[in-house]
Amino acid sequence: MRRIVCISILAITFLFFACYSFASGSFIENLSKIRNSKGYIFKINYQTKDEWTDRLVFKLFCVFDKGAELSFTSTGHNNVKKGWHKTEIRVPKVYRDRYGYIKDYRVEMYQKGLLVSLKSL
């Protein structure tokens, strides 16, 4: 009997967190990388479905030629109105000179501290 209660509590907890994460009103639609003389520019197109969205943060993870793995974070976005939006994260040329070219990358979108969307190369 105790085992059934524990399993049911775990199942309810899992369903609660799954429903909360899938009910998110924000997601990354497109990600592009541009290399120029000043470094890299990562352009992120995303959509919000809530009337107003607060505390959006984008985190960029990069793997460089020389084996280094670094992360870069955008500023927090607040009062984002419903619709399509663009943002960008810049990686200066200093990192390319020191660690080589970017081989692999991914961007994660966090809303209120929870991971809501992920897009990779």
Helical proportion, percent range: 10-25%
Number of domains: 1
Terminal CA distance: 48 Å
Largest sheet: spatial strand order: 4-3-6-7
CATH fold type: Immunoglobulin-like
Average pLDDT metric:
85
Query: According to CATH, what is the class?
Result: Mainly Beta
Radius of gyration, CA atoms, in whole angstroms:
18 Å
Largest sheet: 4 strands, antiparallel
Low-confidence spans: none
β content, as a range? over 45%
Helix/strand structural class = alpha+beta
Q: What order do the helices and strands follow?
A: HEEEEEHEE
Explained architecture:
- There is one protein chain.
- This protein has 121 residues and is an alpha+beta fold.
- The protein has one domain (25-120): Sandwich (Immunoglobulin-like), CATH 2.60.40.
- Helix content is 23%, strand content 58%.
- It is built from two helices and seven strands, in the order H-E-E-E-E-E-H-E-E.
- It has helices at 2-22, 93-99, and strands spanning 26-36, 39-53, 56-64, 69-73, 80-92, 102-111, 114-120.
- Strands 4-3-6-7 form a four-stranded antiparallel sheet, with no helix packed on it. Strands 1-2-5 form a three-stranded antiparallel sheet.
- Strand 1 and strand 2 (39-53) form a beta hairpin.
- It is flat, with a radius of gyration of 18 Å.
- The N and C termini lie far apart (48 Å).
- The model has no long low-confidence stretch (mean pLDDT 85).
Task: Describe the secondary structure blueprint for this structure.
Layout: H1 2-22, E1 26-36, E2 39-53, E3 56-64, E4 69-73, E5 80-92, H2 93-99, E6 102-111, E7 114-120
Antiparallel strand pairs: 1-2, 2-5, 3-4, 3-6, 6-7
